[in-house]
Amino acid sequence: MKAGFIGTGSMGSILIEAFIHSGAFNPEQIIAGNRTIRKAQLLAETYPGLQVAETNREIVQQSDIIFLCVKPSEYKKVIDEIKEDVHSSHFLISITSPVLIKHLEEVLPAKISKIIPSITNYVLSGATLCIHGNRMQPEDKEWLENILTHISTPIRVSENYTRISSDLSSCGPAFLASFIQAFIDAAVEETGISVEEATLLASEMTLGTGKLLTTGGFTPAALQKRVSVPGGITAEGLRILDKELAGVFSQVICATHAKYEEDIEKAEQSFTLKQ
Ligand SMILES: NC(=O)C1=CN([C@@H]2O[C@H](COP(=O)(O)OP(=O)(O)OC[C@H]3O[C@@H](n4cnc5c(N)ncnc54)[C@H](O)[C@@H]3O)[C@@H](O)[C@H]2O)C=CC1
Ligand SMILES: O=C(O)[C@@H]1CCC=N1
């Protein structure tokens, strides 16, 4: 089986590296291309055997499964370029949330799924959201999710919940890192602890907390309760957080959803304009 990657920017590269490191694909099974070809060539230098394509058509012609890893604004252009080479036996995997599966199915005969990866997949962790199109048979869904299991926990979501699921799973690492950054900055400013030491402590804490919330059997609420010794110190800090963060995540979600609606509209226009 050959896997093709159109776009080797941030997420395309992360997926390729994660698939290789996890053993899901060996470099010889991968063909990749990018508008700035140097980015794909760098991957080939790191992973000998990985084939660099000069054109997107070449990627499609040589692949069984194609990962489309460009931004939504580039989708229509890429699809117009490759559509004659896409067959009903191809698997086409889109990794972007605002391009709806129905639009892709209207213009391409392939079996189509949308998967939303996360930077956490780089360390073979976190979720990959799976939204399968109508042509994906039960065995196709299982096959694709088996591949994704090498790098993540595949989780099926409804397309209606793509944005909020992606906020939690894919934007989440950046949101959490922003929270941790603020904690570290305050620690340094208030106490004089070194940035390095504060960062190490916060990072180890984050890893451990992630384990407690996944394999450790804790819910977020149970975890707060367990750490907050009655009459103790944690409760003093949580009191401030509860007060100051009230409503913050509602604002975050409203902002991501507003941008998402804008992107969906632009993507829809690109698909309906010049058919
Ligand atoms: N970065 C992240 O954590 C996540 C990103 N995504 C989605 O992945 C998609 C790509 O995002 P990034 O990789 O972060 O963006 P990026 O800008 O780093 O990568 C996109 C790549 O596509 C290439 N490209 C553009 N037009 C092309 C064309 N016609 N042919 C071939 N290559 C072309 C660009 O040169 C660039 O390297 C976005 O839709 C984003 O929403 C999804 C989940 C997480
Ligand atoms: O910022 C973005 O648009 C992408 C979507 C999910 C994570 N990064």
3D architecture notes:
The chain has 275 residues and is α/β, with parallel strands linked by helices. The chain has two domains: 3-157, 3-Layer(aba) Sandwich (Rossmann fold), CATH 3.40.50; 165-252, ProC C-terminal domain-like (ProC C-terminal domain-like fold, Orthogonal Bundle), CATH 1.10.3730. The chain is 55% helix and 12% strand. It contains eleven helices and eight strands. The structure holds 1,4-dihydronicotinamide adenine dinucleotide (NAI) and (2S)-3,4-dihydro-2H-pyrrole-2-carboxylic acid (A1CAB). Residues 6-12, 33-36, 39, 56, 69-72, 74, 77-78, 95-96, 116-119, 170 line the site of 1,4-dihydronicotinamide adenine dinucleotide.
Highlighted features:
single chain, 275 residues, alpha/beta, ProC C-terminal domain-like fold, 2 domains, binds 1,4-dihydronicotinamide adenine dinucleotide, binds (2S)-3,4-dihydro-2H-pyrrole-2-carboxylic acid, oxidoreductase, NAD(P)-bd_dom_sf, cytoplasm, proline biosynthesis
